[in-house]
């Protein structure tokens, strides 16, 4: 029988990647925090960083080595503008990529916004037993990913990363 991890404790870190957002107007980051807390998960850290690869990398690596954090959600910087660095920065940090996350996100997003969904480079993967999610920065994208994909499965994902 496949193990169930529905009682697993989740300690999360949230990184908003933006050159313009502050904690006052980061609606996506605020939404992620409130949805995690509503699901009885702990928010360990929340940061906003500029769309700079070294800063993004430093946050993710630091959180992956923190034993109290087992889920990292990064939002913003996933598009195609020259400043969008998040996807290209985090992809090489993954030990394994969960390709299906991005595929399913774009499929669900297509139902809401049509063919522009294909411009999203949402993805997920893992590093050092940490589940890492990369989401677009819009409030609608964050809400969709959290409610339909992340909250229903993050405990299973983290539990699988801890299995021998």
SSE topology sketch:
Layout: E1 11-17, H1 27-38, E2 42-49, H2 53-64, E3 71-75, H3 86-90, E4 96-97, H4 99-113, E5 123-127, E6 130-135, H5 139-162
Parallel strand pairs: 1-2, 1-3, 3-6
Antiparallel strand pairs: 4-5, 5-6
Characterization of the model:
41% of the residues lie in helices and 20% in strands. By secondary structure, it is an alpha/beta fold. The chain has a single domain, classed as MoaB/Mog-like domain (Molybdenum Cofactor Biosythetic Enzyme, Chain A, 3-Layer(aba) Sandwich), CATH 3.40.980.10. The protein has a six-stranded mixed beta sheet with strand order 2-1-3-6-5-4, with helices on both faces. It is globular and about 40 Å long. The model has no long low-confidence stretch (mean pLDDT 95).
End-to-end C-alpha gap = 15 Å
- Structural class category: alpha/beta
Q: Output the CATH topology.
A: Molybdenum Cofactor Biosythetic Enzyme, Chain A
* Share of helical residues: 40-55%
Give the H and E element order.
EHEHEHEHEEH
Shape, please? globular
